[in-house]
Design goal:
The model has no long low-confidence stretch (mean pLDDT 83). The N and C termini lie far apart (92 Å). Helices cover 75% and strands 0% of the residues. The chain has three helices and no strands.
Amino acid sequence: MLVSGLSFLKPHLVGWIFVVYWLVCLALTCTVIIVTLLELRAIRRNAQRAHLELFLESLGDIKSSEPKITDNKNNDKNLP
């Protein structure tokens, strides 16, 4: 739209049409920026959620693979 407004549409953009055209360009640009920031926030939130799930899953795997510690007092009774 920038190239169009500065090249072949320039002779047709006179008076209020010029202002409206550039306000529409500004509105579209702001809309794209806002949508991009919202998507970025959603992607970051999903990545954090996935990171937390992976961490908790890994922590669960570590806890389930720990060797069981037995009570030494019970083992002493079986010794000769």
